[in-house]
Amino acid sequence: MSEQMRSYGVARTLFSILEIVGWLVVVVGIIAGFTLAGSAGRYVPDSQKVLLFLMGASSSLVGLFFVGAVQHWRAGVDSAEYNQQMLKVARDQLAVSKQGLKQNNSSPHGYAAKTEESPIANRRSFSAEKREASRAPKVQPEPQTSAGQKIEHSGKTILVEGDTYSYDGIPFKSLEKAQHYIDTYASKSLPEPFRVPE
Question: Taking the model in full, what pTM does it have?
Fold first, then answer.
């Protein structure tokens, strides 16, 4: 499935010639403008000389648009060549991957496979273990409690009612949730209610 990359040499040559023609039109337009302005007599006002110059130089705008169009076409050819190169690289990578899959022996085929099998690569660093430990949820064993028991936390009282814990009449499924509620909400003082002055 090896396809040859297309060469756009003819298009590039044509674009180079057309770009030269476009620049020649720009230069000829400017020269024509000066020639028209200079051919006016001595007694012609300056405003009419400027108009004659602009009339001759207006063809240079056509040349500039022509150069811009040629550069746009050249960019299209460049994009086509870059796409061919990317397609070639992708096909080469696919061929290498297929070749690796066809081989059924268990020996490593690349640097990545060798480092995965080495005992040094399998060792985790101390900082990686520390990060994993900090990400793991901290599970603390629930203390042995009995119904009606009162537990103090941050100066607040949590009441044990069967298999639930309640604080200020709010039931919680675990002691940890009740403590978290107290730490988050109950330990902070609420703002004074707004009173309308009389």
Answer: 0.43
